[in-house]
Amino acid sequence: MYDIPRFISLGEACLVVEFSDAIEMAANVRLRGLSRVMSGEKISGLLECVPTYRSLAIHYDPIKLPRRALVEIVRSKLAESGAEAESFGRIVVLPVAYGGRHGPDMSRVSAHSGLDEEEIVRRHTARDYYCHMLGFTPGFGYLGGMDDSLATPRLENPRAMILAGSVGIAGFQTGAYSVDGPGGWNLIGRTPLLLFNPLDEKNPTLIEAGDWVRFTRISDVEYGAIRRGVEAEYEPERLDPCGR
Amino acid sequence: MAFVVEKPGLFTIVQDLGRWGGLSRGVSLSGPMDRFSLLMGNVMLGNDPNDAALEMAFLGPDVVFLDERCLVLVGAEFDARIDGELFGAWTVRRIAPGGRLSIGGTRRGCRAYLCISGGIDVPLVMGSRSTHVRAKLGGYSGRAILAGDVVELGAPRPLWRAAEGFVCPEALRLSRSPDEPIDAMDGPQVDAFTEKGIKTFYGSAYVVTDRSDRMGCRLDGSALEHMGGPDGANIISEAVVHGAVQVPGDGKPIVLMSDCQTVGGYSKIAVVSSWSVAALAQRAPGSEVRFRRVTTEDAVWRLKKFEMDLWSVAELRATHRSRPSLPAF
């Protein structure tokens, strides 16, 4: 982590405050602290703060809020929040049905790691994963901390369609697809919960940057029961508008 | 009330100024490709600047209005008619209930905006009416409009009829010359490129490819050299903005546009100014692009100048009915 954060311009309407040149927890915690204090105040011309692995991107309207004034505000906030011990964040529990129809690439991970399915699930659920940031698609969390023994290279031929909720492994990363789309991760299971729900005004994404994600194993039957509950609550309104 | 879509055009979508508040959750900003045209259109009608309009590309739609409205078409020059009569760009016209607006192809530029008094009233999704087609989010059912759609309109502001007949003076119109240089500021990873790479970027001509869309404008031309070879292209994923110029390992720059993702893992040699991103949005595949190195101060100055032009247009619109017509020479 740098002694003093670096200020970098990303065009005339975005200021990046960079805390480190590597992925490290301490830097991420500090930049989220800055994000919280900046977002918690009404600052005219401040549009949005976006926390990422090692920097905070601050989007602003340069006519209402000149860059120099913004830098001053950030400096004073850094001085305030500098020593602040950030909370540990929430633990978000993701129930996952592993293997079978929900995890078509379990055998690939098994062949690559030399572990059987039972052991893969045990190791995958044994740790809490820190969410460094969201991105890629709405609600997709970049999770850190997977057991290295589970690392498996991406599929050589990505799938054209992966369903939202699918849990996968790619290299040393694990994560859950938040919306339907193409992808090349090894799928080992699926969560019945909605990771992205634009109709939920307050919490459109299940996971936020700074959360800890805990995967727990559920059976196929439990998956069905939870899924039906979720669909009863939300799905009627989310029915595909194209009528597919 | 509403309008009914008879022909949808090539890719016609509802856009307001974009979806702020979701970037930290991975939700793209979206919004118009040419925000300055949308702003001008709304101001010409006396609308709220953030009122939603139709963005069309290359081929516009045919629609029938169910109630009386004022309309203006801004941005690229499209052939358009209201009930068979020519409907020129930058001119506010009134359309009667049952009136038909037919928009053809573009003569110059790529994208135009149809602004309507009262704006388009699709439901707000995460605070915005902008369409993000890839995420099936916002706009009209999360997609481009189709024949048979009935698109609801908002209640017009008081005195909306007074805008009828207002013509934006030539000097205040956004006419984008096809050889206008594209202003760019050095990006966060400019140091990841060789001296030669940076010289190439600012000094040579690029061409817009047909793989360009609302996510990114993909350019072809001289490859840009990274320090330490193609591996130098990768960085720890971090925030991106529209205008950011990402350069993957093949050295061909991609300028991110309205529907870009919120984070990216390629080094950014430069960031195109907001003003020039809108100019780029009007370049069809095959067009030439030349970058000009500017400072952030230059880019902010350009935004301020536009803000003043916007005020002038608002002023002229508010008084155009009371001005005496000029004597004929």
Structural write-up:
- The complex is a heterodimer of chains A (244) and B (329).
- Chain A has 244 residues and is an alpha+beta fold.
- Chain A has helices spanning 25-39, 67-81, 106-113, 117-125, 220-233, 235-238, and strands at residues 6-9, 14-18, 46-51, 55-60, 91-98, 128-134, 141-144, 159-162, 166-170, 173-176, 181-183, 186-190, 212-218.
- Chain A has two domains: 6-81, Gyrase A, domain 2 (2-Layer Sandwich), CATH 3.30.1360.40; 91-238, Cyclophilin-like (Cyclophilin, Beta Barrel).
- In chain A, strands 7-6-13-5-12-9-10 form a seven-stranded mixed β-sheet. In chain A, strands 1-2-4-3 form a four-stranded antiparallel β-sheet. Chain A has a two-stranded antiparallel sheet with strand order 8-11.
- In chain A, a hairpin with a 3-residue loop joins strand 3 (46-51) and strand 4 (55-60).
- Chain B is α+β, with helices and mostly antiparallel strands.
- Chain B folds into two domains: 2-172, Jelly Rolls (Sandwich), CATH 2.60.120; 182-294, Cyclophilin (Beta Barrel).
- In chain B, helix 1 packs parallel to helix 4 (296-319).
- Chain B starts with a strand and ends in a 10-residue tail after the last helix.
- The A-B interface holds A 8-14, 16, 22-23, 35, 47-55, 57, 59, 62-63, 66-67, 133-140, 142, 178-179, 198-199, 201, 204-205, 208-209, 240-242 and B 20-28, 125-126, 135-138, 141-143, 185, 187-188, 236-241, 243-244, 261-263, 268, 271-274, 296, 299-300, 303-304, 307.
Based on the coordinates given, report the CATH architecture of the largest domain in chain A.
Beta Barrel
Q: What is the typical, i.e. mean, pLDDT of chain B?
A: 95
CATH architecture of the largest domain in chain B: Sandwich
The helix/strand order of chain A is EEHEEHEHHEEEEEEEEHH
Low-confidence stretches of chain A: 239-244
